[in-house]
Amino acid sequence: MQNQTNYYSLPAVHASVTPLTVVYGLAAPLVSVTVVGYVVLRRRLSKEPLQLLRRDLGRTRPPRIRLSRLSFAARFRVRHALREYRTYLLMLCAMLLSVLLLVLSLGMRASIAAYADDVRSGIPFGYMYVLAGDLPSSQHPDDLLDDLPDDAELASVRSVSLSRPLSRSSGAGPDNVSLIGVSEGSRYFTQDLQVPAADHVYVSEPMALRHSLSAGDQLTLTTADGQGHDVVVEGTVSYPEPMVFSPRASANELLGEQPDSANAVLTSAEDDALARQAVTTVSRSGIIKGVDTMASLMATTVYTVLAASVALLVLVMLLLMRMAIDKETYSISLMRTLGYSEREVGSFYLDSYLLLAVVALLVGVPLSVAVMRPVWQVLIASVSFSIEFVLPWGSVAVIAALVITTCAAARLAAGRHLSRVEATEILKDRE
User: Fold this and answer.
1) What is the pLDDT of residue 165?
2) Which residues contact 423 (CB under 8 A, 6 or more apart)?
3) Distance between CA 136 and CA 38 in Å, rounded?
4) Ramachandran area for residue 371 (φ above 0: left; ψ -120 to 50: alpha; else beta)
5) Which among 225, 102, 219 is positioned nearest to 162, based on CA atoms?
6) What is the pLDDT of residue 4?
7) Is the overall model pTM greater than 0.70, yes or no?
8) 147 CB neighbour count, 10 Å cutoff
9) CA distance linking residue 65 with residue 177, whole number of Å
10) Which of 47, 153, 200, 278 could make an SS bond with 266 (beta carbons 3.0 to 4.6 A apart)?
11) Mind spelling out the 3-state secondary structure of the chain?
12) Nearest in space to 220 (alpha carbons), one of 158, 157, 167, 155
C-alpha cells in the first residue's frame, strides 16, 4: 500500500484495526476448524472399536475392471487411483488452482512488459505541445510551419469523455481520452485515416480492447462544455495509449470548428519556444517513464502471487502424499513383507502423482489463460487504458518447470516418509 500511495498525490493513509476485524480474524478459523473437525471425527468415531483398531474406515471398493493385459504395476496404479479417486481429485483441483495463480503472476508480468515494449516502439512523436488556444489562422495555415522546427507537424487535440450505449466494457463509467485530428500526409501517424463522414473515427487498439469495440460500433464523445457527439468506429490504429483519431478537417468539423484549426504541434525533438507556450506537454520519454513506474509498482504484487502459488503447490502435494502414505500403512507394510523393495513400493504409491501433475499442466495452462483474459480486464478496470493478457511460451516453460520440480521435491520428501513404514506394522495390526 505504501508503494502505491507514495506514487500518487494522495493523503497519508493510516491502517487501523477495528474490534470487529479482530473478532472475525480470530473466530472464523476457529469456527471452521471446529465444524470440520466435529463432522469428520463424528463420522470416524461412529465406527465400531474393532474397525478402528484394524484401521478399517469403510474404504470404497474399486469397480471390477478387467486389466489383464496390463502389467502388475500398471494394474496396481489404476486400481489404487480408482479406490482413492477423492484424493486424486482433491490434488488435481489444488494443482489447477496453483497453475491458475502461476499463470496470473507470470502472465501479469509478461503483459505489462509487452505493453511497455509497445509503448517504446509505438509512440511515433518525441513531443506533443498542446497550446491554450488555436494557432493563428490565415489563408494558408500550414505557412505557420515556417516559424516552427523542421520536423514540426500541426494537429488538433481535444479532451473528450468517451461512452457508449449499453456498454460491454469492463470500466465502470466513461473514460477521459483525447481526440486528435491528424494532418493529411502525417509523418508521425502513417496509417491512412480515410473516413466517409465527419462522424466516423478511429480508436487505438487498447481502447478497442477495453470497450470491446469493432468497426461499426457507436460511441458518444462529450466535450468539456457538455456537448455530445455521436460517432461511428471506422477501425483501429496501432497506438499504445487511449486515443481517438480522425483527419484534422473531419475532427474540426465534428466539433464545429474551422477545418484548418490546430492547437497542437508534434515534434521529434524538444523545442524550448513551444514548451514555453504550451499548457500541456506530452513527451515520449515521460510516457515510457510512467509505464516503467507502473511496472515497478506491480512487481511486488507479481512476486507475492508467485510465491503464494508455489507455497500452495508445495504444501498441498506434500500433505496429500503424506496423507496417502499414512492411509496405506497396512498395504505398504504388507508389500514390504512380501519382498518388494522400497523403491518399488514408492513407485506403486507415489509415481502416479507425477502423471497427475502433467495432466494438471496440460489442462490447467490453457484453461487458466482462457479464464484470465476476461478477469484481467476486470482487474485493470481502474486504469484508463487496457493491456492485453499474454502468456509467452517462455512463461509456460517456467510454469511447467516449477510444477514438475515441486512435484519431484514432494515425491522425494514423501519417499522418505514412506521409508519409515516398517514391515512389522502389519503384525501390529493383526495383533
Assistant:
1) 64
2) 333, 336, 337
3) 83
4) alpha
5) 219
6) 44
7) yes
8) 9
9) 65
10) 153
11) CHHHHHHCCCCCCCCCCCHHHHHHHHHHHHHHHHHHHHHHHHHHHCCCHHHHHCCCCCCCCCCCCCCCCCCHHHHHHHHHHHHCHHHHHHHHHHHHHHHHHHHHHHHHHHHHHHHHHHHHHHCCCCEEEEECCCCCCCCCHHHHHHHCCCCCEEEEEEEEEEECCCCCCCCCCCEEEEEEEECCCCCCCCCCCCCCCCCEEEEEHHHHHHHCCCCCCEEEEECCCCCEEEEEEEEEECCCCCEEEEEHHHHHHHCCCCCCCCCEEEECCCCHHHHHHEEEEEEHHHHHHHHHHHHHHHHHHHHHHHHHHHHHHHHHHHHHHHHHHHHCHHHHHHHHHCCCCHHHHHHHHHCHHHHHHHHHHHHHHHHHHHHHHHHHHHHCCCCCCCCCCCCCHHHHHHHHHHHHHHHHHHHHHHHHHHHCCCCCHHHHHHC
12) 167
- Spatial contact of 211 and 169, defined as CB atoms under 8 Å apart: yes
Residue 38's contacts (CB-CB under 8 Å, 6 or more residues apart) are none
φ, ψ for residue 23, nearest 5 deg: -60, -45
- All cell numbers assigned to 185: 500526409
Say how many C-beta atoms besides its own lie within 10 A of residue 268's C-beta. 17
Q: Which amino acid is residue 374, in one-letter code?
A: P
pLDDT score, position 368 = 93
Percent residues over pLDDT 70 in the chain: 83
Residue with cell 501390529: 428
Residue among 187, 206, 180 nearest 282 (CA): 180
The angle, 0 to 180 degrees and rounded to 10, between the axes of the packed helices 342-350 and 72-83 is 50
Which set of grid coordinates corresponds to residue 148? 516552427
Q: Write the burial class of residue 369 (CB in 10 Å: 0-12 exposed, 13-18 middle, 19+ buried).
A: middle
- 313, three cell numbers: 503447490
The structural domains of the chain, with segments of one domain joined by +, span 1-46, 84-118+291-430, 127-269
